[in-house]
Amino acid sequence: MGAAALVGVVSGQAHAAEPRFSGTTAIGTHNAYEKDKYTYFAQALDSGASLLELDVYVDSISHRWRVSHSNPFGDDNNCEAAKTPAELYSKARNQDLGSCLDNIAAWNRLHPDHPPIVFKVEMKVGFNDKGGLGPDEFDTLVSQKLGGSVFKPADLLGGTYPSLDAAAKADAWPSRDALRGKFLFELIPGTVEQSNPFDHYWTDEEYGDHLRDLYAAGRISEAEAFPAVLGAEGGDPRTSRYDASIQPWFVFFDGDAASYVNSGYDTSFYSRNHYISIMTGADGVSPAISSTDPTDAEVADRLALLAKDHASIITSDWSAKSASVLSSVTDRG
Hints:
The chain is of the alpha/beta class. Helix content is 28%, strand content 16%.
């Protein structure tokens, strides 16, 4: 089984308890929407990866959610104009976010028992709430396309906890088995947004405000996503970035793996509080391995290493690896 033992493996007649979502480390694929990684986005879903990334631009001129790496006014991706299982792997690509979600919904009908998959959505230029492309419209689109197949903030709260932080610290996350057939959405601020000197209200803060306000209004069930604290830091990075009123609405953390590992940060903070920690660029941690096609043994070793450093999901550009590799899941340190 390599260096990372898969969860759920049993010895003799003894059956290990199914781990919670917060107690495992899995593998994700960077920019899985790009055509040089997968011909169709449905193939990215087939890959076995536990996280797939989508880059989204709000196109305020055409009032569309564009999916592209660098074109804010067009679509450049492997999502296709397919709404049914029979249409997958055959239709025109370069579609908008709504079509990507249609592909996910169609694929979900073919694979209703799939392990949980996180969609990391980088909002390249942020939201445009005044232009009708804000957090509430994002929620509406996801809800219309995917319905009850999304594990939402309200599901973690379970009608019991007053904030996501309180729920996470109580380890209210379901087991991985209970999350079969489910998707989770993680939102991060985009590279263009972060470099815009006129934009000081980024995706993470905006969606954090959105969650706080929905909860206060008794409408938290409308929220479809979890905002992430972006960038590796020591201590609790929420305290220096956000108003105290929204700090408890962040339980996803996303940063460079090498920065986490090499900077001496106490990464046990994340697993101790049952937060979800995404470690990107897993190939760059010393000793560096291929960012595109490492050996199976190298991937297993890297998964085991970063599990000990309390990662929930590690990511790289490993789309060339087989489903048996990308679906690997191990116990979190």
